[in-house]
Design brief:
single chain, 183 residues, alpha+beta, 2 domains, 6-stranded mixed sheet, 3-stranded antiparallel sheet, elongated
Length: 183
Amino acid sequence: MSTSKNFAEQKGPPAPLAAFTVLQRVLPVRIGLSAEEIKARREKHLEENVHWAYKGNAIYFSEEGVAALTRSACVTPEKTAPAAASEETRDGAAAAREALAFLTEPQPLRVWRAFPHIRNKHIVEVYIDGTHPEDRENIERLWVKDNTFFRQGMLIAPTDYETRPGEKGQYNYTGRQPRRRQR
């Protein structure tokens, strides 16, 4: 019985659910691992209610959990530097920097508002998939040819848009226009 008590002491107090903001669905794009690998690493390296938690039917990660998952992804033999690399690389600092570069890559976007809620037919309001659109700080603009066939909840792949030069939080749509209203 004392073993479970020691384990509970090591685990620490559970983090409040508000700290878990990163949806597990977006992690394959952010980290570069498959969903199965993320699940296996989560079960092996991370603790429930410390690094990740259930919210409804979905699994959310804390920023600490994403960092730990990224570190665990860097330690695998396929992603480590060769033995002839510098001391800094052997320590894993360069590998950690490379893994954090994944976090700055374009993320999939979800449509929040479009026609008929926006009068300008060239703008669609979007948010990064996995964030909360109710928070206006997460809403960004996507400039399109015509927003008539964009619907709320529609997923826009990172390959279908580019950042507008010199404008933070604004993107140009480069993909094919939807031909009909769809999700």
